[in-house]
Amino acid sequence: MQNSSEFQYIAVDTIHESATNPRRTFDECKLGELAESIRTNGLIQPITVRPNSQGFEIVAGARRFRAAQLAELFSLPARIVDINDAQALEWQLVENSQRVDVHPYEEAQGFQRLLDMPGYDVATLVEKSGKSAAHVYARLSLLQLVPSIAEAFSAERITASHANLLARLPQESQATAYEQCWRKDWQDKEPHLLPAKHLSAWIQTNLYLSLAEAPFDKDDPTLNPPAGACVTCPRRSGFNTSLFADVQGDQCLDAPCFHTKVNAHIDREVAARPGLVQIENGYRAPKEQRPGAVRSGTYREIDTANQNPDAEPIAPCEAAKPAIIVYGKRVGTNLTVCTDNNCPIHDPRAAAKAAEHPAPVMPPAPPAETEEEAEARKQQHEEQRKAHEAEQERRAEEFKQQQERQEQEYEAAQTKRDEQRKARQATFDRIIASAPASFTANQLRVVLRAIVNLDPYTFADDLAEDIAAENENEQRSAEELLLATIDATADEKLTVFALRLALSGHVGIPRENEFDFLTEAEAAFAAPQPKKKAPPAKEKKPTLVKTSPIKKAKVAKKQIAA
Fold it and tell me: What residues does each domain of the chain span?
């Protein structure tokens, strides 16, 4: 039970910061703003301190203390509490975790300091901080980052989402995965940070290995004795489901260990079955190949494990042998192969040849055919020929009619989509034409949702192309052009520009089951427009269409993506 006093003013030179404060970084710009506020209004919220041999140690309020020093205050309002070291660290952690601007890595370091003290575990941290267990585990995992990546994260060169994905990997894999966070496109001077979903997809494809598909026994600790059995290994997603809630299935995160166990499994299979055919399912240097192994395709696979139960059973043959894949796709998988390339059972060409030239069997001599029987047989053959020709003509006519229907349906669909595109463009134009001078709360939510769902790589291109359409010599990038346009736009036109920026990427026809943000915007912005009589059409002179560099870049980007 700690004792506390009402706040009182304490001389600034008797106050010092705590060495255990989780917050280590302070935004100098924001400190300056706070100092200016303190000069004008004073320090409204007192800091919290505790007495020690050096004076008073800050428990909560290090940022306010620094800003007060910049404001050149001589004394500060403070609440004095009498608490021990563990309680002080706990107060500091909770106080910082309740602020949105504390850096996740600093919060993780604060969690770890408490765990290093007696009587603290994750459940206690959850209770004290008010955070979920998944949040605490995610923060603690950040301490597994290698120093170079931890430094990049602290400097905010990557986001917390990137850092959490990297921290869950073995440290020897983090540097390789970190390189996948960045991409340098042809127009970039420096690589730019990709969204975390790209890193997640790369990790799922290259570093996560499904234990459900492992060919070895996951309960066997002898395949790789230093690592032990997979079921008790912490380097798999199923070991801590709170930390890997977004990962499907039980995934191995230690690729070297996984491959060591696969090779050990293969060695055991080959030693136990000397006649086992070894198959290399992919090319590698001859010195890396297993002695006696054959390339994939040398023998025909006749494994019946996944055979369709409704299909005809595969007949055995004398050349069938057990095999195992020792390299490449499906490595470690056992199967059965036919080692006879001319097998009349499993080789289609040999089987067809055998069927064309069966062993000669002398048929019995046919009975003598009378003239009446010969004439009847000839007439029957002629009727069959005519019926066959009629059937061929009928099928050809049906095929022709089907093609015509498909062409008509395609043209109708194209016409419909063209009409939809024109209608959506007209809707977009009406929304822009009726844009208000300022947004209501509902309209602002529509704009923000539309921005969140834009393609991060192409959303600016459409609007920039429209702005640059009249200047064929425009050489600036889409981002540069839009930023310049924002600076040049009058204040009363900024809402119109924001609306165009948010909705330009949603004018196209949405895919099936995709939310239509343009329709939502129409309900929020577009006022009913009176119908106007269309003016008589004037004959237009043909004009040359010149493509701006931005449009060319956009087309090139789509071609590269395709």
Answer: 3-144, 208-259, 273-305+316-355, 424-529+542-561
Residue 248, judged by CB atoms within 10 A of its CB (0-12, 13-18, 19+), counts as exposed
As a whole number of angstroms, the distance between CA 87 and CA 165 comes to 32
Separation CA 407–CA 122 (nearest Å)? 66
- The three-class DSSP label of residue 259 is helix
Provide CATH code, domain 3-144.
3.90.1530.30
Q: Are strands 8-11 and 75-82 parallel, antiparallel or unpaired?
A: antiparallel
Q: What is the pLDDT of residue 559?
A: 47
CA distance 476 to 481: 6
- 221: amino acid identity, one letter: P
H helical segments located in 336-457: 348-356, 371-433, 441-452
Q: Is 302 helix (H, G, I), strand (E, B) or coil?
A: coil
Whole-number pLDDT of residue 345: 78
Residue 459: both structure tokens together: 């959303």
Task: Please write the tens of the pLDDT for every residue from 145-170.
Answer: 999 999 888 888 898 889 988 988 88
Residue listed under structure tokens 């915007």: 521
DSSP codes of every residue in 100-155: TTS-HHHHHHHHHHHHTSTT--HHHHHHHH---HHHHHHHHHGGGS-HHHHHHHHT
* Phi and psi at residue 15, to the nearest 5°: -105, 140
| Per-residue CA distances from 146 to 143, 348, 400, 552 (Å) | 8, 57, 67, 42
pLDDT at residue 430 above 80? yes
pLDDT 10s digits, 377-398:
888 888 888 888 888 888 888 8
pTM recorded for the entire structure = 0.39
